[in-house]
């Protein structure tokens, strides 16, 4: 391939993400030279092919970054009030994507941003090239199929042939560049982490088939006396989907859990990191060791239709007294079922703040259990050094 149409193009060498005892590191390079950026700083490794000899030089050491993870369980009553004013609620929403990325993944993010920008330019040029090829090849074909113009204007016919071939060459070249502009990502994780991650995927697949999954996007505490309710908080929620998939900016062999987000970036749970994805221009990367994940069973006063896989654990009234009996001052007071949902909250010190309600509490609890096992497997790498 001559690269005559886009001489500035340089194929990306690919990146390797490694989960090691010291944390997540990013390694970039081709052939005998690789640059590695991670918790221990930046280093360059040079290898002599065929000899097994290598040399590693540290360019800039880095201080070790540690964080802790906690889990809690409590019993909370929730309520969605009809006609709720979202302006009255406190947002449950992550910070801006530029502040979320954890230090060990900043270089990987920079490479993804660069690759994404280059890829968008090529895709745009490829679209124009396909349109141009369609016109030029169509014109040449029209002349080729017509006897008179070919004979009367042979020079013009030859010119159309050359233009058509060049437009096809340009389209073929841009298609190859489009593939080379994708940042090929290799993710290396220890065997015991891979085993736990595969179990996490299985449990997520079952969780994704829950009848209803909601993203909780706002909340406030209730005044139980004034509002005559048994709920301890009022929330605003939107239905979302969970599914296995891939994010457009990462080219890898992994199909990963994808958690849709109603008021921010979607979450993709890759084996060595979490991707918070808003757009190809706005995303963040977080290490698992920087996340705090909690689970509890939420008794929810459900004004809508109860999902088929949810448990009904009791009833209350639209307006209640302190002892739980119906407030008879309200003529049209009605009874409301209380459903048991699973609640999973995902947070980080950098500003990630997401909360989900799952109608099938048993599946949510089981998924959380495998998530904890996966986290423990990730953390245990530090004890295997």
UniProtKB/TrEMBL annotation:
Biased composition (Low complexity): 62-71
InterPro entries in the cross-refs: DUF4236
Top-rank taxon, per record: Bacteria
Key words, A-Z: Coiled coil
Stretches of the chain forming a coiled coil according to its record: 157-184
Region (Disordered): 57-83
Transmembrane segment boundaries: none
Segments forming domain DUF4236: 3-56
Protein name: DUF4236 domain-containing protein
Species: Rheinheimera marina
């Amino acid at each position: 391939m001559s690269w005559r149409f886009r001489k500035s193009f340089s194929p990306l060498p690919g990146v390797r993400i490694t989960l090691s005892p010291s944390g997540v590191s990013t390694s970039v390079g081709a052939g005998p030279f690789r640059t590695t950026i991670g918790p221990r700083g930046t280093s360059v490794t040079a290898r002599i092919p065929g000899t097994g000899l290598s040399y590693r030089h540290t360019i800039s050491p880095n201080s070790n970054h540690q964080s802790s993870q906690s889990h809690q369980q409590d019993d909370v009553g929730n309520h969605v009030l009809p006609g709720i004013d979202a302006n009255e609620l406190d947002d449950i929403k992550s910070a801006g994507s530029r502040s979320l990325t954890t230090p060990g993944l900043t270089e990987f993010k920079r490479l993804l941003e660069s690759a994404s920008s280059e890829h968008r330019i090529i895709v745009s040029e490829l679209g124009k090239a396909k349109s141009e090829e369609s016109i030029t090849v169509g014109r040449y074909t029209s002349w080729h199929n017509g006897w008179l113009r070919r004979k009367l204007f042979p020079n013009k016919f030859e010119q159309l042939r050359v233009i058509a071939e060049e437009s096809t060459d340009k389209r073929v070249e841009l298609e190859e560049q489009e593939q080379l502009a994708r940042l090929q990502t290799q993710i290396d994780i220890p065997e015991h982490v891979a085993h736990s991650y595969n179990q996490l995927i299985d449990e997520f697949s079952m969780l994704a088939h829950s009848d209803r999954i909601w993203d909780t996007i706002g909340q406030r505490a209730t005044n139980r006396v004034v509002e005559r309710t048994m709920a301890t908080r009022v929330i605003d929620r939107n239905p979302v989907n969970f599914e296995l998939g891939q994010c457009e900016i990462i080219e890898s062999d992994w199909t990963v859990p994808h958690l849709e987000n109603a008021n921010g970036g979607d979450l993709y749970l890759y084996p060595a990191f979490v991707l918070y994805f808003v757009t190809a221009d706005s995303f963040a990367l977080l290490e698992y060791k920087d996340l705090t994940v909690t689970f509890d069973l939420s008794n929810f006063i459900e004004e809508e239709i109860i999902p088929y896989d949810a448990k009904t654990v009791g009833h209350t009234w639209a307006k209640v007294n302190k002892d739980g009996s119906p407030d008879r001052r309200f003529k049209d007071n009605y009874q409301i079922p209380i459903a048991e949902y699973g609640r999973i909250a995902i947070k980080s010190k950098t500003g990630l703040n997401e909360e989900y309600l799952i109608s099938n509490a048993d599946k949510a609890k089981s998924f959380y259990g495998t998530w904890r096992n996966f986290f423990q497997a990730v953390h245990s790498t530090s004890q295997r050094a």
